[in-house]
Amino acid sequence: DVTVLRRYLAWLQISENAKATRSSRYGAIKRLLSWLQRYRPDLTSDQLEFPFHAIPKPLSEVKPREALSKREIESVLAAARKDIDANWCDFQKTRALLASFDVSTLPAGSLVRCDLYDFQTLLAVIVHRCGGIIPPREGLKGTKEGRFLDRALQLHGGSLRLSGLLHATSDTITPYLLVIGATLFANPSALV
């Protein structure tokens, strides 16, 4: 078993396959033999040991990227801060629109009787009828009311745009993460 494994590793080292291919092939054999050692020790040798890094991982020799210059970092942070300000401004405008809306004007029954083509009414329906979360598009297609709401959502920019106006999404939170990460990298004592 030990000599077979050594010969296999030697063959893998000289083969013309890509490093990722050699690594995955060794990993498959290693998993199989490890399983045999654990559950069927009578079929394998007690002396069989696997080298730690017999085949280097595919990305182990990738050169690290150059660090950004101070000027480049400052421009990235400036762009992130600009996005943060724009997102916050949009969020505040949405909150003001919702605060000025009279909820009692929403009809109690079907959404078809609402003027969902009015942006303020659409936002109020999403907040007061849907709990502030836009329903998935697949769920809207089943009913007349759902199709009506879907058309209104698409008219006003789609679910992704409207979600960003109502709450944090992955698109709106990314600039915050960039600024926080850069700040902590520059000043690690801020965590203490």
Task: Describe the structure using short key phrases.
mainly alpha, 0% strand, 192 residues, elongated
Q: How would you sum up this structure, described in words?
A:
With about 190 residues, this protein is mostly helical. The protein has eight helices and no strands.
Give unreliable regions as ranges.
none
Radius of gyration: 29 Å
Mean pLDDT: 84
Shape verdict:
elongated
Number of strands: 0
Distance between the termini: 53 Å
Task: Give a summary of the structure in a few sentences.
With 192 residues, this protein is mainly α. It is built from 8 helices and no strands. 61% of the residues lie in helices and 0% in strands.
Write the SSE topology:
Layout lengths: L1 H13 L4 H21 L30 H30 L19 H11 L7 H4 L3 H12 L2 H9 L3 H17 L6
Helix pairs in contact: 3-8
